Amino acid sequence: MKAYYDTGSLLPLYVEEVFSDVVTQLVEARKEPIAFNMLQEIEFENAMRLKVFRRDISTAQLHAVLAARDEDIQSGRLVRRLVNWPQVFVESQRISAASTIRTGCRTLDVLHVAIAVKWGCELFVTADDRQAKAAKMAGLKAFDLRGKP
Fold it and tell me: Which end of the chain is less crowded, N or C, counting CB atoms within 10 A of the terminal residue's CB?
């Protein structure tokens, strides 16, 4: 599992969004499970509940998406991976100091980049320009779902 998918790139795998086709093709081409951590999990669930709040999806659709996500965990498509939070917080501080002034990256986005670094990932998948820049500055190759280099 050498790719890290930020939460915004996981959502289009489960609900139709602008980047659904691009991220689906990337996952299929990489032919590897997707590492999944507790930060992604809570962000994923909260984002889906926000979709219900905004009336983008129904409660029934929310439950179907969460069930599909759980099936992917059981099948091994998503693999829960532990995060060494003390190491990630130290790495986040380093990444923030090196990149936030130039990128405007938010704390949660820096945390995702730091997790990817600590996991030894090579590729960081995102649709967030600031996060992509921070990932590159941290030594990762960024795959921008918007097609930007």
Answer: C
